[in-house]
Design goal:
CATH topology of the largest domain: Serine Threonine Protein Phosphatase 5, Tetratricopeptide repeat
CATH class of the largest domain: Mainly Alpha
Helix content: 55-70%
CATH superfamily of the largest domain: Tetratricopeptide repeat domain
Largest sheet: 2 strands, antiparallel
Structural class: mainly alpha
Strand order of the largest sheet: 1-2
Order of helices and strands: HHEEHHHHHHHHHH
Number of domains: 2
Strand content: under 5%
Oligomer: single chain
Shape: globular
Distance between the termini: 34 Å
Number of strands: 2
C-alpha cells in the first residue's frame, strides 16, 4: 500500500482534500487492532468524523480500484448496510457470501456464520460458493483458536468434496491448525500427508520447511 497506493497522485489528492489518512501498525498498536477487530493485513477502514466505521477494504487493490471503492463506500455503495438492504427478499447467494465476508473481517463471527449458512442452504452442497463458505467458516474457527472445531470442519471438507481445490486448501490448513494448537506429532503427519498428495503444489516447499522446523525446533521455537 505504501509503495503503490499511497504514493499515487490521484489517491494523494483525494487524501489531502477530502479525507484524513491515519496509519496504524497493527503489530505494535494492539489496542487499535483489537478495537477495530483487524484480522488481516492490509486493512483500510473508512470512518465518519465520529469514528464510526462506514466500511473496510481487506487486502490490496490497484490505486484506481482502491480509490473507487473508497468513494463508493463514502456514498453508501457496496457497504454492509447497502448489501443488507439488497439482501431483503433476495436469493442471491453471491450477495449472501459478500455479506458474510464483511461480517467476518469486522469481527462479527456469529453473523458471518449465519450468512455463510444461508449460502449453503440455498444452493448445491458441493458447488464453488458452498466450498468457499465452508473454508471461510473453518478458517473463522481457526482464527478464534477453536482448533479442534477448525480441524473437524476442514476434515469434513476433505471428506465431502473428495478432490479439487477446496480439498487441497483444507489439507494445508489442517496441519497449519494443528501446529497452532501445539500438537506437533499430528501436525508433522498432516504436513507429510499434504506433501505426499501435492508434491508439485506451491505450498509443498513451505510444508517441508514446517516439517523440518517441527522435527528440529530451535531454542526459540521450542519455547
Amino acid at each position: 500500500m505504501d509503495t503503490v497506493v499511497f504514493v499515487d497522485s490521484t489517491v494523494i489528492s483525494k487524501l489531502t482534500s477530502d479525507w484524513i489518512l491515519v496509519k496504524v501498525n497493527g503489530g505494535e498498536d494492539s489496542v487499535s487492532k483489537k478495537a477495530h477487530h483487524v484480522s488481516g493485513y492490509p486493512t483500510t477502514i473508512l470512518a465518519q468524523k465520529s469514528g464510526e466505521e462506514i466500511d473496510r477494504l481487506v487486502g490490496y487493490e490497484p490505486p484506481e480500484e482502491f480509490l473507487q471503492t473508497m468513494i463508493d463506500y463514502s456514498n453508501g455503495i457496496g457497504t454492509l448496510e447497502d448489501l443488507l438492504g439488497k439482501a431483503k427478499g433476495s436469493e442471491d447467494r453471491a450477495l449472501f457470501y459478500e455479506i458474510a465476508d464483511k461480517y467476518k473481517y469486522r469481527g462479527g463471527s456469529e453473523q458471518a456464520e449465519i450468512w455463510y449458512n444461508k449460502v449453503l442452504a440455498t444452493g448445491k452442497a458441493l458447488d464453488s460458493l458452498s466450498g468457499e463458505s465452508r473454508i471461510a467458516v473453518a478458517d473463522m474457527y481457526r482464527r478464534a483458536k477453536e482448533y479442534d472445531r477448525a480441524v473437524e470442519a476442514f476434515a469434513a471438507i476433505v471428506t465431502d468434496f473428495e478432490t479439487g481445490s477446496f480439498v487441497q486448501e483444507a489439507e494445508i490448513y489442517i496441519p497449519y491448525t494443528l501446529k497452532a494448537k501445539g500438537d506437533t506429532t499430528a501436525a508433522i503427519v498432516a504436513f507429510e500427508h499434504y506433501v505426499e498428495n501435492y508434491p508439485e503444489s506451491e505450498d509443498a516447499e513451505w510444508a517441508n520447511e514446517q516439517i523440518e522446523k517441527l522435527k528440529n525446533p530451535t531454542d526459540t521455537e521450542s519455547k
